[in-house]
Structure formats: structure tokens, C-alpha cells
């Protein structure tokens, strides 16, 4: 896949850059400690069937309960984890915890989706991290799905393809996350063995009024059917958006309309209440 633009960084030295670098190192160091101290946790958000609203699975989203800073969202630390070589540890934590949690869910058919940094696909330790998480939890591999975003870091190399094929051979599925926002989403679909596409919420935001956005969603859903992949829309917040997805032939949906990301305890409590 193609490279993304360099996030507006300047090549020349600036004091602001030095400060930014220092902050990054500080967060990185704090994160290293947090991983050891168990300050990271997962929240879960439901993914539902568009036609029936039945829950099909949950996506695991990492949070950092950082003392004195409150609950931090991934936007505040995942990139730092990538840049300070801690993404594999963060990833191993997410895999282990998500598999362990999913193994306790009363409904044995529910999937759990774990986000992976493209960097992890090049890490030889990933295979063991997945295998260990599955073995220790006893979770059926078919219930685990790994979500990857397109990006500079996702390169079509033997190592990356080999890792994906070996994991799929174990029974694990792959979803392409945030589809349509990168420079070469279509090339990514062609180059890698994905089972699912997750349409970025950017396309849904104004889809009820913007014909073009609705057309793109329809086209992606049709493409998925043609390629034998399932299709999930992200960021569904209104009933109107849900109707639009049904018309477009998109099979699954995720968003605040169905539930925000919540801790595992709340998930179980909500299910008990619904039952
Ligand atoms: P993502 O995988 O695309 O996850 C969906 C994001 O959209 C989540 O943000 C979720 O809270 C948010 N969202 C869900 N429904 C709605 C909605 O209806 N409206 C709006 N406005 N937002 C919605 P979050 O939790 O802040 O995560 C951001 C990103 O961080 C994720 O995007 C994913 O790329 C990354 N991430 C999360 N957990 C992990 C992890 O364990 N490892 C790695 N490497 N990345 C992670
Ligand atoms: Mg995701
Ligand atoms: Mg996404
Ligand atoms: Mg995203």
C-alpha cells in the first residue's frame, strides 16, 4: 500500500519539535510502566446485524487508566507505543485480555475483534502472542478477528503476507479497518487476504444528505459481496443511517446507536438485563 503524507511534520529543527519529542519519550516511559502495572484495560463495543440488530460480536478498544490523567483514549498513546517500540507488548496485552474476556461471554457465537498495529504484522512474536492468547483462554480461533488499518506501515512483504496466511490457517479472521480513508484502500484489498471490510465512519457522517457518500457505501458493500467478504459500517449514530445501510446491502453495523464502548462488567450486566 502507498505511503501516507507525513502528518505535516517539518524536516528542520524547531524548539516545538524538541518539546514534542520530549513529551513523546515521557509518555513512552509512563506507558512502559503502565503495561507492567496493569493500567491498561479494554472496553467493548457491540457489532450488530443490520437487518435484525442481533449482536454478532464486540470490538475491543484499549484504554489507559492513567493516574492523575483520567481514562486516556488510544489517540493519546497508541502512536507513541508504536514509536517507542512498545506496540508489541500493548498488542500482546490486548490479545490476551480480549480472548480471556470473550471466553467468558455466555453467548459462544460472539466474535471478538482486536485492533493490531500494522507494525505487529512484521513482528515475528505476533504468531506466539496470538497462539498463547487462544490457548490460555480456550477461545475458539474462529471467534477471533484481527483489525488492521491501511497505512505506511502495512507493506506487502513476505513477512506480512506469511503472518496473515499462517494466522488465517489457524482459523483467525482479518478485517480491514477504516476502509476508504487511506490512499490505496483498493490496492490493499487486492494485496492482502481480508475477510471483512469496515467502512470508515467518515462516509456515514453525512450519508443521509450527501448522495455521493451513500453511493460510495453502496459500491463498497457491492464490492464486498463480489469479493466474498463481509462488510461492517462504523460510526452508526442514527436510525436513518441504519436504514441507509440496509438499503445499501451492508450486513453489519457498529456505532453509538447500538452502544458505546464499555468495560466487560457493563457488557455482561447489559446482557443479563436484556435476557
Ligand atoms: P477503530 O478501530 O476504527 O475503532 C473505532 C473508534 O470509533 C473507537 O474510538 C470508537 O470509540 C469510535 N466510535 C465507535 N462508534 C462511534 C460512533 O458512533 N461515533 C463516533 N464519533 N465514534 C465512534 P477509540 O476507542 O478512541 O479508538 C480509536 C482507534 O484506536 C481505533 O479505531 C483503533 O484504530 C485504535 N485502537 C484501539 N484499540 C487498539 C489496540 O488495542 N491496539 C491498537 N494497535 N490500536 C487500537
Ligand atoms: Mg478497529
Ligand atoms: Mg475503524
Ligand atoms: Mg479508526
UniProtKB/TrEMBL annotation:
Q: Where is the EAL domain?
A: 24-275
What's the protein here called? Answer: EAL domain-containing protein
Q: Give the species.
A: Roseomonas nitratireducens
Amino acid at each position: 500500500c502507498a505511503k501516507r503524507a507525513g502528518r505535516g511534520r517539518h524536516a528542520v529543527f524547531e524548539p516545538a519539535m524538541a518539546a514534542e519529542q520530549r513529551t513523546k519519550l515521557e509518555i513512552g516511559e509512563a506507558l512502559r510502566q503502565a503495561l507492567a502495572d496493569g493500567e491498561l484495560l479494554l472496553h467493548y463495543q457491540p457489532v450488530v446485524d443490520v437487518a435484525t440488530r442481533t449482536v454478532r460480536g464486540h470490538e475491543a478498544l484499549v484504554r489507559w487508566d492513567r493516574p492523575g490523567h483520567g481514562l486516556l483514549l488510544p489517540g493519546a498513546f497508541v502512536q507513541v507505543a508504536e514509536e517507542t517500540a512498545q506496540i508489541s507488548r500493548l498488542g500482546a496485552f490486548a490479545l490476551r485480555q480480549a480472548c480471556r474476556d470473550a471466553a467468558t461471554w455466555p453467548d459462544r457465537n460472539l466474535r471478538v475483534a482486536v485492533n493490531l498495529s500494522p507494525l505487529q504484522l512484521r513482528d515475528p512474536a505476533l504468531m506466539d502472542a496470538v497462539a498463547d492468547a487462544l490457548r490460555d483462554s480456550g477461545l475458539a480461533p474462529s471467534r477471533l478477528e484481527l483489525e488492521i488499518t491501511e497505512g505506511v506501515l502495512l507493506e506487502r512483504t513476505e513477512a506480512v503476507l506469511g503472518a496473515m496466511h499462517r494466522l488465517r490457517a489457524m482459523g483467525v479472521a482479518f478485517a480491514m479497518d477504516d476502509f476508504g480513508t487511506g490512499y490505496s484502500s483498493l490496492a490493499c484489498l487486492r494485496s492482502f487476504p481480508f475477510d471483512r471490510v469496515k467502512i470508515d465512519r467518515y462516509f456515514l457522517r453525512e450519508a443521509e444528505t450527501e448522495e455521493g457518500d451513500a453511493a460510495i457505501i453502496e459500491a463498497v458493500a457491492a464490492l464486498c459481496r463480489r469479493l466474498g467478504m463481509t462488510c461492517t459500517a462504523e460510526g452508526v449514530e442514527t436510525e436513518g443511517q441504519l436504514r441507509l445501510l440496509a438499503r445499501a446491502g451492508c450486513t453489519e453495523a457498529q456505532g453509538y446507536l447500538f452502544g458505546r464502548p464499555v468495560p466487560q462488567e457493563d457488557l455482561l450486566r447489559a446482557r443479563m438485563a436484556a435476557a
